[in-house]
Design a protein that fits this description.
GO terms for molecular function: peroxidase activity. 29% of the residues lie in helices and 23% in strands. It contains five helices and eight strands; from the N terminus they run βββααβααββββα.
Length: 154
């Protein structure tokens, strides 16, 4: 893993495919904050809880002018099947599948030895600059209240 992207860094525009096989760009969300919530792998327990928490708090995040994105290195097909299984309806879950983990590498959170990203939350402001980064122990569920509190104060 490289060094985690620093607060204040402007993130280059990036194009992803969501679980619905639709292209989205980070620049589509200019004027809103973006919560990049990275999880290592679909179909694992803590990752499921992490994505379900984003889905359950989607409207709260929207009220705070924030778009959550649930990112992992899984393919769009895996993410679609898993999202359907979890009952995800609002949350977009982009695939950082190919080039493999490219966006996670740009964020400095790709685990080369494992082939997937760290569990991390990175928040971009309305202009696409990093305003918050936190990497969690792989086995720990990120505290979404911490993120909500940060967003309320910023």
């Amino acid at each position: 893993m490289g060094e985690v992207i620093k607060v204040g860094t402007e993130v280059e525009d990036y194009t992803f495919k969501t679980q619905y096989d639709k292209e989205i760009k980070l620049s589509d969300f200019r004027g809103k904050k973006v919560l990049l919530s990275f999880h290592p792998l679909a179909w694992t327990g803590i990752c499921a809880n992490q994505m379900s928490a984003l889905e359950e708090n989607y409207d709260k995040l929207k009220e705070l002018n924030t778009v959550p994105l649930g990112l992992s290195i899984d393919s769009i097909y895996t993410k679609k099947a898993w999202g359907d299984h979890l009952g995800i309806e609002k949350l977009l879950m982009p695939a950082d599948f190919w080039p493999h983990g490219d966006f996670a590498q740009k964020m400095g959170i790709f685990r080369d030895e494992d082939g997937f990203s760290e569990r991390a939350n990175i928040i971009l402001d309305e202009e696409g600059k990093v305003i918050f980064t936190k990497v969690y122990e792989i086995g720990n569920l990120p505290d979404l209240n911490e993120v909500l509190d940060f967003l309320k104060d910023n």
